[in-house]
């Protein structure tokens, strides 16, 4: 069968550097850091006292207080970013076949705040299990797709993906495949995460995964810098609405870019550490290029996983140089995590949005907070340090890698009829 073409027709963003898509994009290009001291809990006894929290976000601006209380923050974030994407895409679902419109969402951890709060109440009591009836429905990851489908009356494919920090990229790949196999016309995909709480920060601190640069939070996320010391936790959501091309054209939709390939692989190496030679990272990019029918010469920009960890940045860069060869030196490479922090299961969606807008607008957002070169990295590579760079971006590749060795990559290119 002939595969359908899949395009991006709606975007929504709720991030530490912007609560709307335009604000997010503007602050990406301006190199704004979202890191600051944590405000949501007392960090006095924590090794890391900062994160990339949402700023000036009040869920009651979007949802009734009674309804919001029934939702974990990671679900609230998903609903808000999806509402923006639906409006951005000009969707009127009353005029569409909602049996062929689905929701596929990703989150790495889900309702950890709900779990923390409920168990805190339980263990403070006498052992009687006075559990909130919304405990389980607030916590489980797939509840996001349920809420979104109910809100808009969407009866197409509906499920959640979990692959740690690759979760929302896997969600996009699943959505892409359902549409190009003609099993759906439109799928709302994306990811959300809300782990800035005692359990999330304490847990990642125990793994020695987080930066502890408490004296200078705004510059703590330093991908590819000699003095990087771990990632900065972030929170938020990103929504990417994918649509079959002819369906989009028939309703006069605006088209941001075309999704042309997705790749997946496993490191099969370690539960948290990347493969030291980047074999899984190389394979996932190879698979994405093969799926897209493209070569390394066709890619102009890679939005890298680039977490600012000592091992991860080296492994990913080795994979790029090994796969791309001389074409690696023609690329722009950047890590937008230097600004947003690491949104974990939402990272793939937030960073894919950055890649899509780079393709649409021919400008590459920077990797900020670069102060000292690391001899571990090839100096001929263009990491787009500190300042956005204008260039023609014919196609962009976005990488996401998760604990457990999960790797996922997607490729977007300019839409041409």
Helix-strand layout with pairing:
Layout: E1 6-14, H1 21-29, E2 36-37, E3 50-51, H2 65-68, H3 73-88, E4 101-106, H4 112-124, H5 135-139, H6 143-152, E5 158-161, H7 167-180, E6 186-193, H8 198-206, E7 236-244, H9 245-250, E8 257-266, H10 279-292, E9 301-303, H11 310-324, E10 332-334, H12 337-340, H13 347-361, E11 363-364, E12 389-390, E13 395-402, E14 406-413
Parallel strand pairs: 4-5, 4-6, 9-10, 9-13
Antiparallel strand pairs: 1-7, 1-8, 2-3, 6-7, 8-14, 11-12, 13-14
Word description of this protein:
It is a single chain. It is built from 13 helices and 14 strands. It is an alpha/beta fold and 417 residues long. It has a ten-stranded mixed β-sheet, with helices on both faces. Strands 2-3 form a two-stranded antiparallel sheet. α7 (167-180) packs across α13. It is globular. The two termini are 20 Å apart.
Quick summary of this structure?
The protein is an alpha/beta fold and 417 residues long.
List keywords for this structure.
417 residues, alpha/beta, two-stranded antiparallel ribbon, 18% strand, 10-stranded mixed sheet
* Uncertain parts: none
Oligomer: single chain
Calculate the mean pLDDT score and round it.
Answer: 97
Classify the beta-strand content into a percent band.
15-25%
Number of helices: 13
Number of strands: 14
- Gyration radius (Cα, Å) is 20 Å
Secondary structure: helix percent = 25-40%
Shape: globular
Spatial strand sequence of the major β-sheet: 5-4-6-7-1-8-14-13-9-10
Largest sheet: 10 strands, mixed
The span between the termini is 20 Å
Strand-pairing-aware structural class? alpha/beta
**What order do the helices and strands follow?**
EHEEHHEHHHEHEHEHEHEHEHHEEEE
